[in-house]
Write a structure and sequence with these properties.
single chain; binds adenosine-5'-triphosphate; Rossmann fold; 9 helices; globular; four-stranded antiparallel β-sheet; 262 residues; alpha/beta
Length: 262
């Protein structure tokens, strides 16, 4: 099994603030990770580094064998699929959902070629279908609901067949139905051996799709713990990360957490 992501003593400081404090983390082939932690813990910063969209102040980040600082970041764009609220805002609202997915094969955000290969079109349609939004292929992105947009975004991130899929809070702002549909699609993706290594950021253990295997727990830019999900999502570790006493339950592969009742 190969290493897909490696953080070695990663330190990030911006504007006088320490954002990540000597983080060591590695992700291997076949793994599906969730990054959990309270607001400001550094989750999005970890994802931005893993996507090659920022550099550490010190330490090294290696993404799919390429060390940041020694590689052309443009080369990483097709190796890493990313979804985030910031990227979603940059997608052209007047573009059809199908084109939003299709243009990702060339690392673009707007349609710029008149002709795409029929194979590309079929792949884009299959991805929209896999995420339950094939019927929206011809609708403009700006007319989609938040849940529909999230699913189109994940389909877009998968279009170039990346080695690594990064999902920054994919369920944020979704209603219960939207969240559950997205989770079912992500769970199916997690269970498919052909899927890329995945890393998903969330605030809520309830949003971890069954099939995810590992967890990275952050607090104030430091790693609280990292490893197999069952070992990470203990009341002790979660209470430590979130700063209050929590109870954790697992039922049919899903987790729930709530404040402990005294
Ligand atoms: N350019 C910057 N200058 C100063 N501080 C920054 C900068 N960028 C991020 N931060 C701070 O770094 C911390 C970590 O931010 P980050 O977005 O990685 O956290 P997060 O865990 O994703 O938070 P959230 O759950 O609220 O989305 C925050 O306190 C944020 O205010």
């Amino acid at each position: 099994m190969g290493e897909v992501l490696e953080f070695d003593d990663v330190f990030v400081r911006r504007g006088g603030t320490t954002i990540l404090d000597h983080v060591d983390w590695s992700v291997d082939d076949g793994e599906r990770w969730v990054i959990l932690g309270p607001n400001g813990a550094g989750k999005t910063t970890v994802v931005q580094l893993a996507a090659g969209r920022m550099h550490p102040t010190s330490g090294t980040v290696t993404v799919v064998g390429e060390q940041l600082g020694r590689t052309d970041l443009a080369d990483l764009r097709t190796l890493v699929g990313l979804t985030s609220a910031a990227l979603a805002d940059r997608l052209p609202p007047g573009e059809r959902a199908l084109d939003i997915v299709l243009t990702a094969s060339y690392g673009q955000t707007g349609r710029w070629r008149e002709e795409y290969d029929s194979e590309d079109i079929e792949r884009a349609e299959a991805l929209l279908h896999a995420f339950g939004v094939a019927h929206l292929a011809q609708r403009t992105y700006g007319t989609l609901s938040s849940g529909e947009r999230q699913r189109v975004q994940v389909a877009r991130a998968l279009m170039p067949d990346p080695e690594l899929l990064l999902l920054d809070e994919p369920a944020a702002g979704l209603d219960l139905g939207g969240r559950e549909e997205l989770m079912a699609a992500l769970s199916e993706l997690a269970g498919d051996a052909r899927s890329p290594v995945s890393v998903m950021v969330t605030h809520h253990v309830e949003e971890i799709p069954p099939g995810f295997t590992h967890g990275l727990l952050l607090r104030d830019g430091e790693v609280v713990t990292a490893g197999e999900l069952g070992d990470v999502l203990t009341p002790q570790h979660l209470s430590n990360a979130f700063g209050l006493e929590l109870e954790v339950e697992r039922h049919r592969g899903r987790y729930t957490a709530r404040a402990a009742v005294r």
